[in-house]
Amino acid sequence: MKNYEITNSEESEIINLIPIISNNVQITCVEDGVYILKNKELKRYLKISKQMFNLVKLIDNKSTINQIVDKYNNKNIEILNSKFVYNVLYLKLANFGLLIDNKNLKKNNKPNYLKLSITIINEAKLDFVTKYFSFLFNLKISIILISISFSIFAYWIKTSFDIYSKFNFQDCAILSFAIVFISTIFHELGHATSSRFFGANHSGIGIGFYLLFPVFYTDVTDIWILSKNKRIIINLSGIYFEILFSTSILILSFILNMEILGSIALFIFFKTFLNLNPFIRSDGYWVLSDLINKPNLMLHGLIKIKQIFKS
Q1: What is the pLDDT of residues 82-99, one digit of tens each?
Q2: Could you give the CA distance from residue 18 to residue 65 in angstroms, rounded to a whole number?
């Protein structure tokens, strides 16, 4: 935690400040000793320690900073002072919407690494659709469906893989783009549905530019209030839905006897696993972030790279 310099005259003033917590703040314990501070209105999230949680819960909107410090020091081994508590509450946590004092904070509507993003399916419409797909996250059902999907593709690859080598993209470009587009929408629908299933909020489906390439996205930042295992499932649910979608297209190719659909289904099936790449902000990146407990994985990675070059 960075400490800001405070003069003696300022210190005499801050000890009598009364911090007041915003009504939009919610603090959730996601794991033992790990808490998530969330401002529901601003959509701002911060991972805090148990010690930080113990400090914040002493704020009753009546006690001064000096009184809060006394209460904390009487209950905990760590000894805090008024300067430190002021820094934490007014200069750190306030940036995440903890206190009502800071009214200039802007709402986080979209990931800041996406440029020129627009919403193509709003949150209300998407939420209406997700309730019909929630059953797919029943453990038994999901295991059965994944097993069937891999079995069908294994059989088709073994018996008809030579068809894929005859695939002529120019003859069915429009059909291919249309089906791949729908599969991408289905991918984002998977993230939104699993978020709803586990009790977290989601945004609508949008499209923007990431690293100069157009990408679809669904903002599921609210899953930070969930446990690590649930977050990992949500991060992988887009791949899960694309597997189910590609399997449906493959079955349709059997029914209609359209070999081209089988080739497109196989392309989608393999394409979706590219999302496991941990070096870009895709599904694999967020899974790795959860596994090693690093919310700002990209930032930590850049810091490590700089340390390597400096050494």
Answers
A1: 888 998 998 888 888 888
A2: 6
In 10 A of CB 59, how many CB atoms?
20
| Tokens matching residue 211 | 């690293």
Q: pTM here?
A: 0.83
DSSP state of 225: G
What CA–CA distance (Å, rounded) separates 3 from 51?
17
| Contact (CB, 8 A) for 245 and 292 | no
Report d(CA 37, CA 88) in Å as an integer: 13
Beta strands at 205-210 and 25-31: parallel, antiparallel or unpaired: unpaired
| 286/281 Cα distance (integer angstroms) | 7
Which amino acid is located at 197 in the chain? F
pLDDT greater than 70 at residue 171 = no
Checking if the pLDDT of 282 tops 80, the result is yes
Q: Which residues contact 267 (CB under 8 A, 6 or more apart)?
A: 176, 180
Distances in whole angstroms, Cα of residue 101 to Cα of each of 93, 104, 109, 228: 11, 9, 21, 32
Backbone φ and ψ for 209, nearest 5 degrees, come out as -115, 130
Residue 80 — pLDDT band, cuts 50, 70, 90?
A: confident
Contact residues for 266 (Cβ-Cβ < 8 A; gap 6+): 153, 156, 157, 164, 246, 250
